[in-house]
Amino acid sequence: MRRSSTPNVFLYHLDDSDLRKHDIAARLIREAIDTGNACTSYQVVQECLSAGLRKAHIPLDAERARDYLDTVLVPLWFGKGSRFALIRLQAPD
Predict the structure, then answer these.
(1) CA distances in angstroms from 64 to 58, 74, 86, listed in the order given
(2) What pLDDT digit, counting tens, does each position of 42-58 carry?
């Protein structure tokens, strides 16, 4: 996966109502995380979580959103290809 200007690949990954798009998105994201040669932007992370939390057909509550952020979005946002790779997020107390 190359740097994306839209959160669609992540939304297809979260939404399995179209299995073909979901499977393609899952493969692209898995390859991107496994190889570490892709990254995404803060704007895409923000848009993905915002759209995911607002769309009723995507079952994304606050807990699942945090899990998705930690396991998918942050590794791609702060991955090897990111200029922010040395920054670490800290959860508020």
Answers:
(1) 11, 14, 25
(2) 888 888 888 888 876 77
